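Below is how a single chain appears once it has passed through the pipeline. First comes the sequence as given, then the structure the pipeline wrote out for it. We keep one example in the README because the format questions we get most often are answered faster by looking than by reading.
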Amino acid sequence: MALPQTLRPRPWSPLNDQEWHALYPYLIPRSPAGRQVGDLRRRMDAIFQVACAGQPWKDVPESAGKPDTVARYFRRLTRGGLWQKLLDALCDLDAAHPLMQIRDFIFRACRRANRMLGVKFAVLIRHLGMLSALNGPPCLMPDPDLSETLTGQILPAFAQRDHRQVKRLTWLLRSTMGLRRFPAAWRRVWP
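Resulting structure:
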């Protein structure tokens, strides 16, 4: 089933000057040792290209540098909170802002960062309402807010009731935890 044109993510293309200047203030320009990082623009283009294509890091273009270096910089940005800052910034921007033009790139990089950051990052994405940045369909992702509500308020109220109702609520609680792994076919369909 093809997605409508409005829901299709933007295909990868290198950052233009406006997009780059909007993104640059959020980046970490120095390594932990204090050395200046190489060509940041090429590195970010490589990160977005790999994230958009769903490729492994070894497929980073040679012009961006060594794949290990680009992957290490991505991890440093992730641990430094770049993706959280960008998602927060996207909430407050109007549609004409250059960061909004690369929103799809940021969402795809967030999906890759989600593997490192875990459930807390997924909860932030849910609270901001940017469900396209989740690793999969929202109905199949963990929802800690709903599970806490169920365990804290609803489940104890039904504990004294019919056994079948408790079984149904237990099933509902398990469904709020989401799936551990998504089948590969689902990952290809999720835009």
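The first helix runs from residue 17 to 23.

See the next section for the split statistics.
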